[in-house]
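FAQ

Q: What does a record look like?
A: Structure on top, sequence underneath. For example:
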């Protein structure tokens, strides 16, 4: 509901995972991770090696959320797991959905992590990188063609797009757009 990410420092909460085939629920506390190179976030360390892809629903129960009147938030979604191609012990869904686009990540121990896309603030220090990139990898137009560029951080790498409208397209396939700026 917000155009820019919120700070996660004060947010507390849990992730509740329900295995659909058995109906069992597991609750894990979310832990704060300070911003290293990009947006701070919350994380839960979870072993998902015995859960089949698409067989889990995930609910996030959050407290002390900045910027909303109730200070609490709850959201749910079906969770699909991305596995290494060489992991033949686990069945795969034909099309996997990415986890929530919010600042919350579920990190599977030993998993091949999907790229994380974080919207970050453009600073004066970014001007050289913007000049070097020149073109939006989504629209293939000059970065300043739709106003000030939007800065994304994908697993620690910077990518600039021409407007906030391009962010969702990058989130759908971040590796594709990083490859476009690599030449």
């Amino acid at each position: 509901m917000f155009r820019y990410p919120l700070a996660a420092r004060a947010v507390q909460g849990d992730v509740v995972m329900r295995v659909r085939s058995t109906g069992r629920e597991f609750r894990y506390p979310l832990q704060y991770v300070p911003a290293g190179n990009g947006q701070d976030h919350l994380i839960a360390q979870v072993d998902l090696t015995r859960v089949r892809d698409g067989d889990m629903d995930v609910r996030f129960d959050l407290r002390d959320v900045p910027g909303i009147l109730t200070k609490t938030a709850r959201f749910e979604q079906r969770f699909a797991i991305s596995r290494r191609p060489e992991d033949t012990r686990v069945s795969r869904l034909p099309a996997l959905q990415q986890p929530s686009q919010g600042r919350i990540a579920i990190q599977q121990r030993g998993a091949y992590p999907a790229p994380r896309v974080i919207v970050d603030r453009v600073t004066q220090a970014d001007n050289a990188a913007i000049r070097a990139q020149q073109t939006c990898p989504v629209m293939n137009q000059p970065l300043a063609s739709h106003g000030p560029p939007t800065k994304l951080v994908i697993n620690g790498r910077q990518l600039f797009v021409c407007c906030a409208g391009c962010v969702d397209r990058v989130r759908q396939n971040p590796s594709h757009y990083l490859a476009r700026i690599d030449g």
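Q: Is there anything notable about this one?
A: Residues 118-182 form one domain.
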